[in-house]
Task: structure prediction
Amino acid sequence: EIVMTQSPATVSVSPGERATLSCRASQGVFSNLVWYQQKPGQAPRLLISDVSTRATGIPPRFSGSGSGTEFTLTISSLQSEDFAVYYCQQYTQWPLTFGGGTKVEIK
Amino acid sequence: EVQLLESGGGLVQPGGSLRLSCAVSGFTFSIYHVSWVRQAPGKGLEWVSAISGSGDNTYYADSVRGRFTISRDNSKNTLYLQMSSLRAEDTAIYYCAKRSRANGGCFDYWGQGTLVTVSS
Result:
C-alpha cells in the first residue's frame, strides 16, 4: 500500500498570503496525484489532477507541482473561500490512498 | 450536468447489515469506474471499494474486504454497496465518486454522501 503523508496538519495563513502544502508518497506515483478541497459539511471537490492540471473553474491562484514522491499544492494569495481542508490522493495503484489532510485556517 | 445521489444510510446495530445506493445521471455510467469513499466523523477520507464499468472487476480496502460487496446496475444507472457484519468503526459518511477516466484517474465528481451510524 502506498502511504500518503501530508504536512503540516494545520497551517495558519492571513488572507492575501501564500500557502504551501506538502504531500509525500511512500513510493513513486508517477503523475497520478490529485488534490481535493473540502469545506465543512460538503463533499470533497476536485482541485488539481495529474499533479498540476487545474480542474474546470479552479482559479489560477491554485497550482500543483512535484514528481515521484514529493508534491506541493500552492495557493498564491489566499481568499476567504480558500480556508478549508486539502487532501492529496494517489491513483497509481490499489488501494487508492489519501493523505491525512492539511487544514488551512485563518491567522 | 453530472450528479450522484446517495441513499440508504441510517442507524444500524453492530453486526447488522445495510445497503447503500448511488443514483447517477449526466454521464455514460456504464463506461466509468466508480467508487465508494468514506469519512468517519472528524477524520480524513478513506477509499472503500471500486467497480469497473462493466462490473467485472471489483476492488476493496482491507478494512472491508469480506464484509462489503460493491455492485452496479448499468440499466438503472445505480451503484450499490452491501455492507454486512458492521462495526462501530464503519460509522462514517459514505460518498460515491466517479473516476475521471474510463479505466482510472482521479475522482472528478462526488455525491453529497449518506451517513451510516453503527451503534447499539
